[in-house]
Amino acid sequence: METLILILKTYVTAGLRGELAATKTFSHSKRFILTSVKCGSAGVRIHENFIPATSWNIKTCRRFHPSRCQAYADQDVNQGTKLHEKLAEKNYDSIDVDLVENGTVGVIYLDRQKALNALSEALMNEVVDACQTFESIEEVGAIVITGKGKAFAAGADIKEMKDKTFEDAHKSRLFSHWNAVAALRKPTIAAVNGFALGGGCELAMACDIILAGEKALFGQPEVKLGVIPGIGGTQRLIREVGKSRAMEMILTGKAFMNAEEAAQRGLVSRVVPGDNETLVAEAIKVAKSIAELSRPTIAMAKEAVNAAYELGLSEGIKREHSLFCATFALEDQKEGMAAFAEKRDPQFKHK
Ligand code: CAA
């Protein structure tokens, strides 16, 4: 009889951390799986000998890739592994990714802390790839994007792009693939903890919801570098904070906006008091509450709201009406309304 040892690290989103070890015995296993698991209720589950595989930490999975192991702890691990293999195979360097809330919320951490998470080409490609991977995982209902350390992102990587010519920028359509974030059908939430400058501010604005930490600072300093915002800043900022304030920020390259003002002006939904962990936990909570709803309904709601960006009022109202009528083709509409009438919680099937 051989032993499979699972080292479990609990990560309770409220900030409580602890290390637990559990030993399971398997007659058919010859190898160890060493992993860490992030899970709000790991303590309880460990006692039940149940490993919440959909909460596997991706970086650890990369080192101890489950497919190299002959056996998994149980059926639940197998299911979770399938989801995580998609991400674990990616080998991201500039970001960290995680699936939480039983695999229903994807989290992307920008992780180039020495450069204040400056958006290098590699980092941007990885974010786009991770977003599209989360988009392709059926169970994921919402995506959170945040930065590790003291910045969300201090903009596009200046050192990397400083020698580019007009031809380089034009031919490669510099930064245009970044539009993929705004084009996602699944809802995105930016949890902005510190500097969100230049491309960092633009990335946050490309998301559907922005939650700000108390130290969040938004700005478009590009003109100080001899360029202008290039990932939607000139277009989106004006809609969020009005022409005068947007012009002041963009034309001076200074006049940064703090969290409190950003909330007053509607650039962010609200300020979350506390540290980064509290902010990310809150973003995950919002993401989870979205992910619990019917995914096709949510996609239609997002599409309808975004139509307001592109269309005039009467065209927008028509688009909304078409999408509203389309929701009546969903089983989830029948279930949602039946559940209300029967005074019970709905069980959405996402179809
Ligand atoms: N690109 C590359 N590296 C960056 C960077 C960026 N956007 N922002 C910060 N860094 C690097 C710094 O060079 C420094 O690296 P070294 O230790 O190797 O010198 C490190 O991150 C820490 O930065 P600072 O020492 O400058 O930290 P600070 O706390 O004193 O200042 C800051 C913080 C005010 C954010 C300052 O770093 C700063 O002004 N950064 C640039 C902000 C900016 O101009 N962003 C716009 C970029 S252009 C853009 O985004 C174009 C677009 O729209 C697409």
TrEMBL record:
GO MF entries: enoyl-CoA hydratase activity
Top-level lineage group: Eukaryota
EC number(s) per entry: 4.2.1.17
GO cellular component: mitochondrion
A Pfam match: ECH_1
Keyword Cell division applies: no
Class in the EC hierarchy, top level: lyase
Keyword flag Lyase: yes
Database matches in InterPro entries: ClpP/crotonase-like_dom_sf (IPR029045), Enoyl-CoA_hyd/isom_CS (IPR018376), Enoyl-CoA_hydra/iso (IPR001753), Enoyl-CoA_hydra_C (IPR014748)
SUPFAM superfamilies: ClpP/crotonase (SSF52096)
Family (UniProt): Belongs to the enoyl-CoA hydratase/isomerase family.
Protein name: Probable enoyl-CoA hydratase, mitochondrial
Source organism of the structure: Marchantia polymorpha subsp. ruderalis
Lineage, top ranks: Eukaryota, Viridiplantae, Streptophyta, Embryophyta, Marchantiophyta
